[in-house]
């Protein structure tokens, strides 16, 4: 061999090596492409011979689009027998296939972590939502680097990756503009992200992120803004850029809407489509859906309709004067659900218009869990449930009347969510709802798949028992990717899911999934070869407040049920007493599976929200100093001004015509604000729209430099207890007036079971005001807290704020 032949021989050899290793690449990222050229002292003596481009994917590698709807049960879409018009789901099913035994985890963060990684949710530290994480491995709230996301793997193979909408897999304390960004979407495999990091968001005034930058919505609610539409617009724009800039690359798109999670927000015209459709209530709705689902062949003819839980209200038991409120809540939800399906349709239309349709796998998942019963008795401000604040339906209706009546539901002025009875009906024919991992209805969600190039349409629902953790292994199998053993230098956990590629074109294909456990906050189940054992757990999602005896609860006290799913589709016939041996076998299997997936202790997700709320993850600081232009500090990372003793000190230059917000935390659905209105210093504590306490100075602020102090202390030192608010200007306590829901408080008065007086907030929020709104200084961005300046928002202060100091008090 001559020396001058060496570069060519090296090029050929390296090309063969690279081609072979790409077939089963076990270590990611791929090594940098080497040079095929040989450098000598001069260019004339050197050989220039670049290696051919590296092809790590088959030439026909499909594009992948994963659509995930939030908090949506199987009894809602018209596709499967429900009464919510879902033409896009109809279309995907009619052009592809659908599965009627696909399962989620019964909760949002856990399902998303499992979907993105192909592992069980406890294995990837997501046994609870990220905001309520704790110190046990299965509940830590951070996807470990030993379980790389599918986006990270596909990106390494050459896919262009993007994510939109709800994320909810970043620890809450890491969500400020300063990061750290290691656990944001763009550091977990997605090259582009546009959406929100929290578990929910206002559909009209969301706190949005583009990549790692907080950005305002492109329009206001008055200009017609809605988050679902914005997410579709942005994804369509990204597709067009992809077509223009990298048409030779396949793409992976993860489009996870905020709908139909609370708050239920949709323009009135969409809700009005359903006027009168639900007038006869949830019990009759459930009967109709059950009949249609059987007629459509979505569920077997021998399926039993499970009974309504005794603790869940019947429609007949609802007072007549409350029924219009309950009907309208469902009309709003139905419009909300149809609206998001329409946005998915826009996305599918664009994929087809750009010529991608034939070779794009679209997986349309209707729900990351079943319908949510967290609206409990029906609400205009759905975080009341998370704060465990008891209210009556009449209180909600009265607050709603003050805002304009039933037509306000679905607007920016409410954070409404329907009665749990509607959630139960939306999970027809099953027993469960969201947060119940023990029963279908909490975990069984439809999935439709379209891939015209490789999947033949089949109208028969595919009945194989599958889990959300099976999606990633199936996609790897389709594309020909070997699950990597090392990613970014970190050995990888095994995949828990299995590929169901063999079932895509065969509804009668053998089962590929033989065992799967479920667990959320003590509610749990174990599936194995056609049998499932279930333990309901210690709490009912539709019952307000903490369950009686929760501090004494242990899992060994739970009653287990047993079902033969080959004969009993809906878990209607409990065989535990008839077959104790099978039940014992499955209970043992649950403990084995749960233990090896880092799930112990059973019910570990209850530790913070119900057993030790004082241990909620929160900023480690007790004192903050802000400049006057700090905005959009997510509430979870901000000082807890509404439920910890504190003093806020504001150094400001007050103009003669002083107006505007000094600081605001939260939203119109719940929050607090300190503001100046026509020179008058004012404070509002908005308890989820049910109770608005306003404390206002009797004289105007002095013009010029001023030191304003707002001191908050508990009157009764317990979470949710009444607060005393004292305001001072230049060191002197000022005279104030107090109103509660517009009624003057001149002396001690009865407010429920307690007495309150001037300068007192009767009830406080023990947990949080919002999931996704923020602390703003000098303005109130997002959703405005106070009724006083709602129409003037963001009501920017027209003076100058030099500094705001916050300190917790002992």
End-to-end CA span: 84 Å
The count of β-strands is 35
Low-confidence stretches: 1-23
Q: What's the number of helices? A: 14
Strand content: 15-25%
Q: Calculate the mean pLDDT score and round it.
A: 95
Overall 3D shape = globular
**Into which percent range does the helicity of residues fall?**
10-25%
Structural class: alpha+beta
Main β-sheet description: 9 strands, mixed
Query: Measured on Cα atoms, how large is the radius of gyration?
Result: 28 Å
Read across the widest sheet, the strand sequence of neighbours is 3-11-10-2-9-5-6-7-8
Account of the protein in words:
Strand 13 and strand 14 form a beta hairpin. Helix 5 packs parallel to helix 8. The strands form 7 sheets. Strands 3-11-10-2-9-5-6-7-8 form a 9-stranded mixed beta sheet, with helices on both faces. The N and C termini lie far apart (84 Å). It contains 14 helices and 35 strands. The N terminus is likely disordered. The longest helix has 31 residues. By secondary structure, it is α+β, with helices and mostly antiparallel strands.
